[in-house]
Write a structure and sequence with these properties.
Helix content: 40-55%
Largest sheet: 2 strands, antiparallel
Shape: globular
Strand order of the largest sheet: 1-6
Number of domains: 1
Order of helices and strands: HEHHEEHEEHHHHEHH
Structural class: mainly alpha
Distance between the termini: 13 Å
Length: 203
C-alpha cells in the first residue's frame, strides 16, 4: 500500500473517530446501548456501503495477510446468492447474535446504524434509532417521546457521509452490497501493488 492510500485510510479513520466520539457521548447521556450479543443489523441482506467506507477494513484484512481468503469467501457467498456480510461471525448458541470480526475498522453505515439522526425534507433533524436498541434501553421513558432532547446529540448521517465521500469522489458515493464493497476496496488497495508491500508497511 503506497503512502497516498495509507493516508486516505487514516483520513477515513479520522472521520470514524469523530463519529464514535459523538455516539459515545449520546450513549452516556441517554443510557442506550446495543443489547449484548445482538447481531440483527449485521445479518441483514440489505446492507450497502461505499468502497471508501470499507478501506480501513481492506487495510486490516491485508495487514493480516487474508485478502485472498476473504475474497474467496466473498466469491462463494455470491455464488450462493448470500448477501450477508462475510465478516460477521454468528454466535453458535444464538443464530441471531454474533459479532463483527473487524469491529474497530467497520464501515460508516455499521457505526451509525441505530445511533444517528437525519435531516428531513424540512431540514429538521430526526432520530434514527434501532427498535432493539429502544427495547433494551433504560425503563421509565420512551426516547421517541423526547426526540427533541436527544436528537441534537446524535451525529447526522448525511453530514458524515458527505464529509467522507468528498475525500475521494470516485469511490465515496456509489453504494454497493457490503461484500462487493469489501472486494473492490481490496482490489483498489493491494492487488495492483508490489508483493513486497506488506514488508514495507510492517517496517
Amino acid at each position: 500500500m503506497d503512502r497516498r492510500h495509507e493516508g486516505l485510510v487514516q483520513d477515513v479513520l479520522s472521520v470514524y473517530h469523530d463519529v464514535d466520539q459523538a455516539i459515545s457521548r449520546f450513549q452516556k447521556d441517554s443510557g442506550l446501548h446495543c443489547p449484548p450479543g445482538c447481531g440483527t443489523c449485521c445479518s441483514s441482506v440489505q446492507v450497502e456501503a461505499t468502497v471508501l467506507e470499507c478501506l480501513p477494513m481492506g487495510a486490516e484484512i491485508w495487514r493480516q495477510g487474508r485478502e485472498d481468503l476473504v475474497a474467496g469467501h466473498i466469491d462463494e457467498r455470491q455464488k450462493q446468492g448470500d448477501l450477508r456480510c462475510v465478516l460477521f461471525r454468528n454466535t453458535p448458541a444464538n443464530p441471531d447474535g454474533g459479532h463483527c470480526s473487524l469491529y474497530p475498522q467497520r464501515p460508516l453505515v455499521c457505526r451509525m446504524f441505530g445511533f444517528a439522526s437525519r435531516r428531513n425534507k424540512l431540514n429538521r433533524r430526526e432520530a434514527c434509532l434501532c427498535i432493539h436498541l429502544l427495547q433494551a434501553g433504560p425503563g421509565g421513558y420512551d426516547i421517541r417521546d423526547e426526540a427533541g432532547r436527544w436528537t441534537d446529540r446524535l451525529p447526522v448521517y448525511q453530514d458524515s457521509f458527505y464529509r467522507l465521500g468528498s475525500m475521494a469522489l470516485e469511490m465515496g458515493f456509489h453504494l454497493y452490497p457490503i461484500n462487493m464493497a469489501f472486494r473492490i476496496s481490496l482490489e483498489f488497495l493491494y492487488w495492483k501493488c508490489p508483493d513486497r508491500r506488506r514488508h514495507d508497511i510492517a517496517a
